[in-house]
Amino acid sequence: MKVGFIGLGAMGSAMASNLVAAGHAVTVWNRSPAAAEPLASLGAKVVRTADRAVQGEAVLSMLANDAAVREVFLDGGLLDAMDPGTVHVNHATISLALAKELAEAHARRGLGYVAAPVFGRPDVAAAGRLNILAAGVPASVEKVRPLLQAMAAKVWPLGEAPERANVVKLAGNFMLAAAIESMAEASALARAHGVAAADFLEVMTATLFAAPAYQGYAKPIAERRYKPAGFALPLGYKDIGLAQAAAEAARVPMPFAGVLRDGLLEALAAGDEDVDWSVLAEVAARRAHLGD
Amino acid sequence: MKVGFIGLGAMGSAMASNLVAAGHAVTVWNRSPAAAEPLASLGAKVVRTADRAVQGEAVLSMLANDAAVREVFLDGGLLDAMDPGTVHVNHATISLALAKELAEAHARRGLGYVAAPVFGRPDVAAAGRLNILAAGVPASVEKVRPLLQAMAAKVWPLGEAPERANVVKLAGNFMLAAAIESMAEASALARAHGVAAADFLEVMTATLFAAPAYQGYAKPIAERRYKPAGFALPLGYKDIGLAQAAAEAARVPMPFAGVLRDGLLEALAAGDEDVDWSVLAEVAARRAHLGD
Amino acid sequence: MKVGFIGLGAMGSAMASNLVAAGHAVTVWNRSPAAAEPLASLGAKVVRTADRAVQGEAVLSMLANDAAVREVFLDGGLLDAMDPGTVHVNHATISLALAKELAEAHARRGLGYVAAPVFGRPDVAAAGRLNILAAGVPASVEKVRPLLQAMAAKVWPLGEAPERANVVKLAGNFMLAAAIESMAEASALARAHGVAAADFLEVMTATLFAAPAYQGYAKPIAERRYKPAGFALPLGYKDIGLAQAAAEAARVPMPFAGVLRDGLLEALAAGDEDVDWSVLAEVAARRAHLGD
Amino acid sequence: MKVGFIGLGAMGSAMASNLVAAGHAVTVWNRSPAAAEPLASLGAKVVRTADRAVQGEAVLSMLANDAAVREVFLDGGLLDAMDPGTVHVNHATISLALAKELAEAHARRGLGYVAAPVFGRPDVAAAGRLNILAAGVPASVEKVRPLLQAMAAKVWPLGEAPERANVVKLAGNFMLAAAIESMAEASALARAHGVAAADFLEVMTATLFAAPAYQGYAKPIAERRYKPAGFALPLGYKDIGLAQAAAEAARVPMPFAGVLRDGLLEALAAGDEDVDWSVLAEVAARRAHLGD
C-alpha cells in the first residue's frame, strides 16, 4: 500500500521501518530531516514538506503530544492537502478532547480517522511487537489493518468512536504509573525494615507481579539507575495530566491519580528532568529519609 | 518428619494435606474440631488439645491474625509445652511487632522460630504451589526446608530476622491492594467514556499486566461479582492496617496506603462485609455515580 | 474620577454602586444590558458597547473567568480602544498565566494594569467592606487607590508583579476549600459517634475557629442546606483547578488540593451543580454511609 | 470543695493553680514530685502517693495519653481507692475506646466519670480561659461544674456519654492539623511565586482566617521557627492516630487525615522530634524544593 508516515522519533522510526519491511511504499516526513536518513537507507522515500507525505491511501502519524498534532494537522492545514477517502491513523497519546476534535475535522472533509495509540517502547516497536489499540469507522479500520498488523503483536479493536482507543491508552498509562508508585512505596517500606529493594522486588516480580510492566520498572528501582529514561518523567507527568483531564470531563474521582500527580511533581521539583518516571522510587525514599 | 499443624482453615487444611501427602507424620489441631476431619481421612492424627500437637520436631501454624496467634502461642502457654529445639514455623500474616515478640519468646525458651508467610490462595495451596517467604536462624530454616518445599512452588529465603519475611508479605499485600485500586479507578474512567470494564481489563491483563495478581482480580471487577470472596474485605482492611503500622514504626510515608485505607473503609461503611476486597471497584464507580 | 466598570454580576454591581456612591463618574457596561439598569437608577451612565466604557482614567472589570476576560479584553480588541495611560483594574479570579499575558499586553500599549482580586461575597461588596489584593506598577496602583478604597475594608498591597495578587487569591481560595473539607470530615466523624454536626460546629466556630471563613460555611453544613449557593460548586472546582495549575507551573506538590479536586468532582458527579461548594460535607457523609 | 489533681505537666499545673486560686482545697500528686513544688507554694497540699490524692469529692486528672491514664487509674488500682460517689474528671485527650472502658469501670464501682478534654495551651490554662468540653451523667457534671468554671472561659456540655466529649476533642485537633497543612501548602505555593509566607499569611489571618487557630500557627510558619513547640510533633501525630482510630471504629473515610498522617510521618522521618507540629510547613517546602 502507498502510505505516508509523519513523526520519526524513536517510536515512529521503528514503526515506519516495519512498514517498509512489510513491502509497503512508505513516504516519510519529519520536522528535523536528519531523523529520516536511516529510513531512506531502508527504502523509504523522504520528502521535505509534510503535504507531500499525505498523498497515499493512508497516513500514519506518531507525534509527541497534543500541541504537535494540532500544529501539524490542524493549524498547518495538512488535512486540506489530503484526498477524500484517505485514512489518517493517529498513534499519538493525546487528550480525549483533541481526539474528538480531530474525528470531526476529518469527517467534515471526507477523510477517514483511526485512533491507534500503542503500548510498547521503542525496542518493542522495532520488533514489530506493539499492542495497538484501534478505534474508528469500521471501513477505515479495515483498510489500514494490514499496516497495523505489520507493526503489532496484536491489534485490539475498540469500536467506532476514536476517543475510546485514547481513553484506554490513558487509563493504561495511569495503571503503569500506579504500578511504579506501588513498587516505590513498598520498596521504601522494605528498605526501612532492612530488606534491600532488589531482594523484595525479585520476589514480587517473579511471583504475583510477573508481568512486563512490573519487571521493566523494577530494574531501575532496584538498581537506582534512572538514566537513560525508558519513559521520561515529563512525558509521564503529561500523561497523568491527560488522564486527569479525561476524568474531569466525565467527573470520575481518581485519588491514585492525585497522588501520582504530586509524586511526579515532587520529582520534577527535585530537578529530575532527564530520567525515567520510575524515579518515583527516589521520591518515596526521600520522604522516608532513607539514606543512600 | 514428625510435625504438628495448628490452624485448619481453608489455607491451613490445604497446606497440611500436602505435608501428609509428602509422607510426613502430621498431628493436627484446630479450635473447632470439625475442620480436622478431612485431614484425618487423609491420614493425619487429630488431637483434642493444642499442646499435644506440638510434640514433634517442628510445629507449623496458620492462624488468622495477631490476636489468634497471641492467644494460642503466648497467652495459652503453648511455647512452654514444646521441647527445646523444636522449630515453630509461623505462616500467619502478622504485625512486625508481634513477629519480633515471638522471635524473642521462642529464643528465650531455646525454641526455633521461622517466619514463613505465604503468597497464594487456597487453590494454590492445595496444589502445593505456594510462594513461601522464609526468615529465621539458618539452622532452623534448614531443618524445616523439606516441609516448606512440600507445600511450595518456591521457598524465598529472606535472611535471619523473622520480621523480614513479614514485612515482605505486608508490602506484597499492599501492592495487591494498589493493583486492585488502580484497576478500579482506570475501569471507572473507561466506563465513564463508554468502554466496558471487561473490554478494558481484557486488553490490560493480556498485555502489560499479564500477571496473576491482575488477572485474578480483573475477573470479579469485570463481572461485578464479589462473592464468594477470594480474599475477604475485612482481612484486606486488616492487612493494609498492618502495612501502615509497619510504615509508622519505620516512619515511611505511604500515600497510596492512605487512599487504600479510605477506599476499603468506604466499602465497609457500605455494608460490604462478606465480599472480595476487589469491591474497591464498586467504590470507585459509586464515587463517579456510574449507573448500573 | 471618570471611570468605567465592566461586568455587572452580583459582585460587579455591588462594587460599581460603591464607586457611584463615592462620587465618581461611572460608566458601566455589561454583556446582557438588563443587569445595568439598577446602576443607571443610582446615577451610573450605561453604554451599549464595551469600548465606550473604557474612555475614563481607569477601567475596572469583574468578569467570571479566564475565558470571559480573554474574550472581552484580548480577543475583542478592547485594549486598543483605551487611551495610553489608562489604568485597567482587573478584579477577576484568573490564572497566573493569563495574569502575566495581560500584564504584558497592557504594558506593550502603554496602559496601566493592576491585578486586584477580592475576598468577600456580594453582601460584603455591597457594604464596601471587601478585602482587595492589589499588585501592579506603583504609579498605577496609587492612581486607582481612591477607587479601591471606596469598595474596601482594606487594600492589601502585594508588590509590582500583578500575578502576585492572583496567586494570593488562589492560595486563599484553596484555604477556604480546605477549611470546608476539614469541617466536612470532622462533622462526619462527630455524627458517626452520635454528636450532631450543628453541636460540633457550634463549639468549633465559637472557639478555635471563630473566623468568618468557618462561621460562614458551618451554617450550610450544620443545616444541610446548600441553596442558594454562596459560592457555587462549579466555580469552586474551577478555582481549585487554577490553584493546581499555579502549583504545576512552579512545581509545588499540594496533596490537600488533590483531595479537594476529587471531593468536588464527586459532588459534581452526584449532579450537584447549583449548590454551594460546602456540599463537600454531603460527600463526606455519603462516603461514611451516614443516613439522613 | 475538697479536690484532688493528678498530673502536673504544663497544662495540669496551670489548671490546678486556678482551682487553688478559686478557694478549693486541692491535693496534688505527680509522678515526679518536683513538678508539685510550685503548687505547694500556692497553697496546694502535695502528697507522695496517688491514692492519697483521690480522697476528696472530686478528682481531676490531666495525663499525657492512653498509656498514662491506663497505668495510673486502671492498672494501678486507683479506682479502688476512691469512695463511692467521688467524681473523676478526666481532662486527657484519649481514645474513644479507652473513654468507654473508663466510663464502665467507674460506673461499676459507683464512681462518677466526666470526660472533660480541653482546648487551649498552657498560657490559656494559666489565664483560666480554657474551653472545656464536658460529657457525663448530669449529676456528676453538675457537681464538678464550679471546678470547671474556675478553669474555663466556657464549659461546653456535650451530653451524657463521655466519649462524646472525646470525639469532639479529636475532631477539633484534626481540624487544627488541617488548618496547619492548608497554610503549609498555600504558603509553599505563594513562596514559589515570589510572595513571602509572612506576607501571604498576614493577609489571610487578618481577613478570612482571623481566628486563634490560624493566627497562632501562622507565626511559626512565617518565621520558620518551630521551637519551642506549642504542640509537639509527636503528640500531634498521636492525636491524628486517635482520630483515625475513631474514624475506623465508625467507618468514616477521612482523606485529609491520611494526608496529615503522611505529612507528620515525613516530618518525624526528617528527625524533627522536639518541634511544633506546624513544621508541616517545612515538609511542604521541601517537597517543592524551595530553597532557604
UniProtKB/TrEMBL annotation, chains A, B, C, D:
Record-annotated 6-phosphogluconate dehydrogenase NADP-binding domain positions: 2-156
Keywords assigned by UniProt, alphabetized: NAD, Oxidoreductase, Signal
GO molecular function, a single term: NAD binding
Highest taxon of the lineage: Bacteria
Record-annotated active site: 169
Position of the signal peptide: 1-16
One of the protein's GO biological processes: organic acid catabolic process
3-hydroxyisobutyrate dehydrogenase-like NAD-binding domain boundaries: 165-281
UniProt keyword NAD present: yes
One Pfam assignment: NAD_binding_2
Protein name: 3-hydroxyisobutyrate dehydrogenase-like beta-hydroxyacid dehydrogenase
Species in which this protein is naturally found: Fulvimonas soli
